[in-house]
Amino acid sequence: MKVIFCILAFMALFYQTDAQWVDLGSHFPDTINTTCLPDIFCFGDTLWIPSCTNANVLYYSTNGGISFVIKPPSAQFNAVHFLSPTLGYAASQDGRVDKTVDAGSYFVILRDGENRYMKKFIVLR
Hints:
The structure is a single chain. By secondary structure, the protein is mostly beta strands. Helix content is 10%, strand content 27%. It starts with a helix and ends in a 14-residue tail after the last strand. The radius of gyration is 18 Å and the shape is globular. The chain has a four-stranded antiparallel β-sheet with strand order 1-2-3-4, with no helix packed on it. It has one domain (24-111): Thrombin, subunit H (Beta Barrel). The protein has one helix at 2-14, and strands at residues 41-43, 46-50, 58-61, 69-71, 77-82, 88-92, 97-100, 108-111.
């Protein structure tokens, strides 16, 4: 037990982290309603945040959330997942799945949802 305590104490004294939390709320565009953000996906400093209260809005940042631009997706997305800063997938509440190869500027429908509810998904390579 003393050994475990010594290891934990050593780690607490000498372990440093460079991670910091950033309050993104003050950086969102004025049009955002932060009461309903169903998903957030980060790839390095690039962020994608769909909004379920603003129809067809995808918030996009390339600087870690310091500033955002609005990308008009082809549907109201509930979930987003990216494999690179440009290649990504998005799902709407009715189960529709779209793909983008340009960071969300343009989406192509991969699967029509046929009114099947989809809240979250993960793309595996």
